[in-house]
Design goal:
The structure holds two protein chains of two kinds.
Chain A: H1 3-6, H2 14-21, H3 30-33, H4 41-47, H5 59-72, H6 82-85, H7 87-94, H8 103-121, H9 130-141, H10 151-167, H11 179-184, H12 215-218
Helix pairs in contact in A: 5-7, 7-10, 8-9, 9-10
Chain B: E1 3-4, E2 8-13, H1 19-28, E3 33-36, H2 51-56, E4 72-74, H3 115-123, H4 141-155, E5 163-164, E6 167-168, H5 192-203, E7 208-210, H6 249-254, E8 259-262, E9 266-272, E10 278-285, E11 288-299, H7 303-312, E12 334-335, E13 342-345, E14 356-363, E15 382-388, H8 392-396, H9 408-418, E16 422-424, E17 426-429, E18 438-446, E19 452-457, H10 462-481, E20 486-489, E21 501-502, E22 528-530, H11 545-561, H12 563-567
Parallel strand pairs in B: 1-11, 2-3, 2-11, 3-8, 4-19, 11-22
Antiparallel strand pairs in B: 5-6, 7-14, 9-10, 10-11, 12-21, 13-16, 13-20, 14-15, 15-17, 18-19
Helix pairs in contact in B: 1-11, 4-11
The chains are: A mainly alpha, B alpha/beta.
Chain lengths: 226, 568
């Protein structure tokens, strides 16, 4: 069990979970595979949301992307991360819209990540331990992943989009349940802000509203993913 | 073949910050005005509080003309090109970038009009940086004051005067030049953070004051007061508190029935007759091409497009581009030395989630020539500005001050603790024109119609770099006085496409070194006027828009008062 696995609240090893559901990879699939009340997996099942129907990526690409985002903004003692925020869903959707220009970069990049993971650690990225995944990501970030030229560019792209998917308005498919905004204490979209909410010690309750939950803007929604 | 339209008195190319202002005095004078705008009208409901859309995806503009003609940049004529941004810093719409700008609405200080002569007088000619082409403006602040006043009233500027007819008021900027009267509205309210910073500035013996903004601090002319919701920055205002020309001067001009607004009009050339006078403009709308004849043309797109359109409008009389027989179009270009800034980390939450970039505290003690440069190796100065404005994606992208990696568990713990504990100052500094900083047409990169885009060849020189360093140190001092536990200075950056682009059609009495005269009309083409910061020869240490708008009003008023001699 890696150090990271030990820090999971449920003490459950990712590899152990994945072993149970086979090679399918991403542990979000557990909600569809495991019935409720299956012992220690149950906590994981409740915390990890189901993956939405894919809009752009292939299943294999989504497995890899989900696993990458889970390491960039991990689920840990400080709270939910990119997995719960569904950053990968945000990216999958946006690649069919506003980020369509990056579709090819994701196709090549995700394949490159898996190829490097296989070569360096002996398995596709999603099936590696958290510590091995971090090691692979660090190599990508530093452009030292053998056989993956320009890996830092792809790493930076995914990092930027994972941050967008975690902290943007939930309208775009990420920041599910305002996980990102709650993480950093952003008190949310308000259409008018009174002076007392700008005091240094204001304790402002989160609105948990999307901009497009307000009737003024709900009729002018941008196209999904755009 | 272009369809020839009915002749009009004046055609304005671009209904943004300056064209949108100029339309009003012209229409009020009874002239028929056609305003050609590449964008469309946007409604308040289009201006949603959506950080992803506004700050990362180039909205709210619905027409992406500008994004398809982003200028290229290289630091000098033999250097490789910089990476070209995907999004143009400015937007197309009726109202232009005034829809989403920060709306800081400063007047220049007296020194900014006389940089060359004042530097010679106070420090000697050798103090002027080598290679600078800076000239005094053809007039001083006093000549522009009445036009600043008109625009402040029309668009609605909030602020605290510091100098009314020579009487100094320490609540405002004690360094500003004389104003005839107070601002139309009191300043935007302070916040816990900005008041904390003001106290720190005073503890240093400095003179903090709330900056002026074209944003209503209360109800004004039927418009709501600001709601401080935090999405003003590149986002537009859903209650029309921001004094965009789209909600102020343009609709007022339309009510005279003299202004016709044509949207989605993509101007491709300014045309001349056999006498070398402009005859009108050619534009495309959809798949159709039109020629709009006019007695006078006012070119009021952004600096890059003003220069590009002139250079693209070559003719027999102007083989090197319209109004360019002296080779001055594109010269004396400079962007604002505003990139190098200071990030600060505090040990407490600052609660800057709401507010707007114009809701802040300024210090002008180190701006312009407000301090003695005798022992310093540069001229000019900077305006220090802190403000309340923070959104979640930007907060997550904050500097980690060397205390955490860029991702993973440690990073996540860092931003969880510090997302509301950091602040970044906005430091605008004097920037000078130089002989080898210029705009021209890119030989390779073209827009979708096949026309070359504008190319920027420019880099900051020693004066700008030394000044940046000096001003950053002052800002570090200010943050530390307010309790910052860590600060960092960011690099000076490049002179690529920017929201503060000056020169290229500089204004001055000398036709050998300037494109337009003291009234904003071409030295070579008497019925062609140019509006915008492209006519400005110095930057000051503050945002250009109000000055460009005051100049636009002045040019328009001059045109109306001298109609027969200019229109011919």
């Amino acid at each position: 069990m890696s150090q990271d696995d030990a820090s999971r609240p449920d003490g459950l090893s990712r590899r152990a979970l994945l072993g149970r559901v086979g090679a399918a990879g991403a542990f979000v699939a557990l909600t569809e595979v495991l019935p409720s009340g299956t012992g220690d997996a149950d906590a994981q099942t409740r915390r990890a949301p189901a993956r939405e129907p894919l809009e752009t990526l292939t299943q294999a690409e989504a497995d890899t992307l989900d696993a990458i985002t889970a390491r960039l903004i991990p689920t840990d003692s400080t709270g939910p991360g990119a997995t719960e925020a569904r950053a990968a869903h945000y990216i999958d959707r946006a690649l069919g819209g506003a980020l369509a220009g990056f579709r090819d970069a994701y196709r090549a990049g995700l394949a490159g990540v898996d190829a490097y993971a296989q070569a360096a650690k002996g398995a596709p990225f999603a099936r590696l331990s958290a510590s091995d995944q971090d090691a692979v990501l660090t190599d990508l970030e530093r452009n030292t992943a053998t056989g993956f030229a320009g890996s830092a560019g792809f790493f930076n792209l995914v990092l930027a989009h994972t941050v967008q998917g975690t902290f943007s308005d939930p309208f775009y498919g990420g920041n599910r349940n305002f996980a990102g905004w709650d993480l950093i204490g952003y008190p949310g979209v308000r259409l008018a802000v009174t002076a007392d909410l700008q005091n240094l010690d204001a304790k402002t309750a989160p609105t948990h509203m999307s901009a497009y939950d307000y009737s003024m803007f709900s009729s002018r929604k941008p196209a999904h993913g755009h | 073949m272009a369809t020839e339209l009915r002749r009009t008195d004046v055609v304005i190319v671009g209904l943004g910050a300056t064209g949108g202002v100029a339309a009003l005095p012209l229409a009020q004078a009874g002239l028929d005005v056609v305003g050609l705008e590449a964008g469309t009208w946007l409604a308040p409901a289009d201006l949603s509080p959506d950080e992803l859309r506004n700050n990362f995806r180039g909205w709210p503009q619905s027409v992406q003309k500008a994004n398809r003609e982003v200028p290229t940049h290289r630091p000098n004529a033999s250097a490789p090109y910089s990476a070209r941004p995907a999004i143009h810093p400015m937007m197309n719409a009726v109202g232009g970038t005034t829809l989403h700008y920060w709306a800081q609405s400063w007047r220049l200080n007296p020194w900014d009009f006389k940089v060359a002569s004042e530097t010679r007088r106070r420090y000697g000619a050798s103090k002027l940086p080598k290679g600078t082409t800076v000239e005094d403006w053809p007039f001083g602040l006093d000549a522009l004051e009445p036009y600043y006043d008109k625009v402040e009233v029309e668009i609605g500027v909030s602020g605290q005067a510091g100098n009314i007819s020579g009487k100094i008021d320490a609540r405002g900027n004690i360094f500003e030049g004389p104003r005839a009267r107070a601002y139309p509205m009191p300043p935007l309210r302070g916040t816990g953070f900005t008041e904390m910073m003001a106290g720190a500035a005073r503890s240093l013996g400095w003179h903090p004051f709330p900056g002026p903004a074209a944003i209503t601090s209360g109800r004004y002319e039927g418009r709501s007061g600001c709601v401080y919701h935090g999405y003003c920055n590149r986002g537009g205002c859903h209650v029309s508190a921001k004094g965009s020309t789209a909600v102020t001067t343009i609709p007022k001009a339309q009510r005279t029935k003299r202004l016709t607004v044509v949207t989605e009009a993509h101007v491709t050339s300014i045309d001349v007759d056999g006498q070398g006078r402009v005859s009108g403009v050619t534009y495309r709308k959809g798949n159709d091409e039109f020629f709009q004849p006019a007695s006078v043309v006012l070119l009021a797109s952004y600096t890059y497009e003003n220069v590009r359109l002139l250079l693209l409008s070559a003719s027999k009389a102007f083989p090197n581009g319209l109004s360019n027989n002296h080779g001055q179009v594109g010269r004396h270009y400079f962007s604002h030395n505003q990139i190098a800034t200071v990030n600060a980390l505090f040990a407490r939450n600052l609660n800057t989630w709401y507010g707007l970039p114009a809701q802040g505290m300024a210090v002008d003690d180190w701006a312009d020539d407000n301090f003695d440069h005798g022992a310093l190796d540069f001229i000019g100065g900077g305006n220090l500005w802190v403000y309340s404005d923070r959104r979640p994606i930007a907060a997550a992208n904050m500097s980690t001050f060397g205390r955490a990696p860029r991702w993973g568990a440690q990073w996540k713990a860092f931003i969880k603790e510090n997302a509301d504990r950091a602040n970044t100052a906005y430091l605008q500094r004097t920037t000078l024109p130089y002989e080898d900083n210029y705009l021209d047409l890119d030989p390779d990169v073209k827009d979708p119609l096949g026309f070359p885009v504008c190319r920027i060849t420019a880099d900051y020189k020693e004066n700008e770099r030394r000044l940046a360093d000096f001003i950053q140190d002052k800002m570090v001092q200010w943050y530390r006085a307010a309790g910052a536990i860590a600060t960092e200075k960011t690099p000076v950056g490049t002179m690529g496409p920017t929201t503060h682009a000056y020169g290229g059609t500089r204004m001055g009495d000398n036709a050998e070194t300037n494109v337009v005269d003291r009234w904003g009309f071409s030295h070579e083409v008497p019925n062609l006027g140019v509006l915008g910061a492209s006519v400005m020869g110095t930057s000051g240490a503050r945002n250009p828009t109000l000055t460009a708008q005051a100049l636009a009003w002045r040019t328009a008023e001059h045109l109306a008062m001298n109609w027969k001699s200019i229109a011919g």
